[in-house]
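Milestone 3.1: sequence recovery, worked example.
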């Protein structure tokens, strides 16, 4: 059974930083591209960032480029998202995801203005 447990969310002020972590289990983590998805209030799910299986190639949504950094530790089956210069529009539930359908339960990020 695929399990993806995200943590690290919280309330932060405009311009602040948070680091999200995701513990993965139940599948060969190092063989899969992984990513972070978010759902902002009243919006659809959207990909924030993706990282290839080796951690060598990353992609970002235009809205977070230059502010967010995705990384992974395949030895620990961990996925990370470093979020800097946070804005109120980054407020959302963030999910660690193997695919849109296979995602964890999410962690809430709230950015106050």
């Amino acid at each position: 059974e695929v399990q993806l447990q995200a943590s690290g969310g919280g309330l932060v002020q405009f311009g602040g930083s948070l680091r999200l972590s995701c513990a993965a289990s139940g599948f060969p983590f190092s063989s899969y591209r992984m990513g972070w998805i978010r759902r902002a209030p009243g919006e659809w799910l959207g990909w924030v960032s993706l990282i290839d299986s080796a951690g060598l190639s990353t992609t970002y949504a235009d809205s977070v480029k230059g502010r967010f950094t995705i990384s992974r530790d395949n030895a620990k089956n961990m996925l990370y998202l470093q979020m800097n210069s946070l804005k109120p529009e980054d407020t959302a539930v963030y999910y660690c995801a193997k695919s849109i359908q296979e995602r964890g339960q999410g962690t809430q990020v709230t950015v106050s203005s």
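The beta strands are 3-7, 10-13, 18-25, 34-39, 45-51, 58-60, 68-73, 78-83, 92-97, 107-112. The chain has no helices and ten strands.
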